[in-house]
Amino acid sequence: MTLLLIALGAAVGAPARYLVDRAVQARHDSVFPWGTFTVNVLGSFLLGLLVAGAGSVSPALTALLGTGLCGALTTYSTFSYETLRLYASGNRSLAVLNVLASLAGGLGAAFAGYAVATALWP
Questions:
Q1: DSSP assignment, residue 55?
Q2: Distance, CA of 21 to CA of 23 (rounded, Å)
Q3: How far apart, in whole angstroms, are the C-alpha atoms of residue 40 and residue 110?
Q4: Cα–Cα distance between 48 and 42 in angstroms, integer?
Q5: How does pLDDT run across 66-114, given as a tens digit for each residue?
């Protein structure tokens, strides 16, 4: 049953990642991977919300939303590829910025999600 819930969450998360990535990237005339950055920060925020409620959230819901949805929504491999592509094309400062901003943004979003959840549902 858990595997089915993970697959269901991933079936929603992967297309959402693609659609959000394309929508965000279409609004920016830049080689910086704004779409991937956005989905990774969003997914980190959602996972922070979920982790804050881990004691009251069922393992099934954690599998569906945490592993399935957030796992498919966020993408470490695309982040790595796009960073490498920036570096190889001579945009070394953007590659470094992508690494630093993604790390800070993802961790910050996870902490923010955690803080929001604990403030709303003590």
A1: T
A2: 6
A3: 10
A4: 10
A5: 999 999 999 999 999 999 999 999 999 999 999 999 999 999 999 999 9
The residues near 88 (Cβ < 8 Å, ≥ 6 apart) are none
Q: Which CA distances in Å does 110 have to 24, 49, 56, 100?
A: 20, 7, 18, 15
| 97, 39 contact by CB (below 8 A) | no
Cβ density class 38-67: b for 16+ within 10 Å, e for less: bbbbbbbbbbbbbbbeeeebeeeebbbbbb
Going from the C-alpha of 46 to that of each of 36, 38, 65, 76, 103, the distances in angstroms are 15, 12, 9, 16, 16
**Can you tell me the distance from the alpha carbon of 38 to that of 23, in angstroms, rounded to the nearest whole number?**
10
Q: What is the DSSP letter of 30?
A: S
Element spanning 94, H or E: helix 92-120
